């Protein structure tokens, strides 16, 4: 964070000179922990090339609606009663700090609870959508369609200079299969979190809080389930914990549909690597990382 940005933020949020900040996480966006003399906050700095003011406002709108039913961090306004603060063409949003911990080593019961939480999020968002009219701000979210999940990632991967010719060939084959398989999924543009996993959940003394709604949008629910499958595959824990998660989720999709949603989610993630080379972990052996993702997809699609 640049010093002029920090100075402006201190002013607009009425923080004193003893206030400090520290980087918590750098991924799609940057997340900072703010310490004032008597409080803590979480500050989100959005990528300039990723989110418009309208999209961020839509994300906040969803968080405010969901907070009526689920545990979601509260958005803190600045001294001008604004939820989004613009500094040097960069957008910031301030959230309440939730005392608690991430679940570093989730158990079978944790995965079952996570499945139930995802199901609750899906059912609650369906009820919210039914209550809104066209033009509602919450509808201004990305659509996870074939273009976003397949066409755009393929283009970025084929143009990525660090990707081997062999892996580019695999990408083209996979994209053709995904194009056809996507048609097998029923047309479903319901709200999905798009990144709900244990890294985006804080466990307080009494509750679990859902974090990071910056990727939420409308798409097939199997994509949300695919987030969990990818994490379990990466940790080699799929056979151990997937049954507990899907039992907690309850609303069973056809296995083939879940596999297709998972493959689409993974291809979408692989397609981010070429344009996220400013993130240190993604700069480390990107060809090998993408190759692993492609192997996961080939396994899911039984290619």
Give a description of the structure.
The chain is of the alpha+beta class and 303 residues long. It folds into two domains: 3-96, Phosphorylase Kinase, domain 1, CATH 3.30.200.20; 108-300, Aminoglycoside 3'-phosphotransferase, Chain: A, domain 2 (Alpha-Beta Complex), CATH 3.90.1200. It has ten helices and ten strands. Strands 1, 2, 3, 4, 5 and 6 form a six-stranded antiparallel beta sheet that branches. It has a two-stranded antiparallel sheet with strand order 7-10. Strands 8-9 form a two-stranded antiparallel sheet.
Number of domains: 2
Structural class: alpha+beta
Give helix % range.
40-55%
What's the CATH H-level homologous superfamily of the largest domain? Aminoglycoside phosphotransferase (APH), C-terminal lobe
Number of β-strand runs: 10
CATH topology of the largest domain: Aminoglycoside 3'-phosphotransferase, Chain: A, domain 2
Q: Overall mean pLDDT score? A: 93
The separation of the N and C termini measures: 45 Å
Can you summarize the main beta sheet?
A: 6 strands, antiparallel
- The CATH first-level class of the largest domain comes to Alpha Beta
Strand content: 5-15%
| Low confidence ranges | none
CATH architecture of the largest domain: Alpha-Beta Complex
Instruction: Please work out how many helical segments DSSP would assign.
Output: 10
Oligomer: single chain
User: What is the N-to-C succession of helices and strands?
Assistant: HEEEHEEEHHHEEEEHHHHH
Radius of gyration: 20 Å
Shape: globular
Summarize the structure.
InterPro entries: Aminoglycoside_PTrfase, Kinase-like_dom_sf, Pseudomonas-type_ThrB. By secondary structure, this protein is of the alpha+beta class.
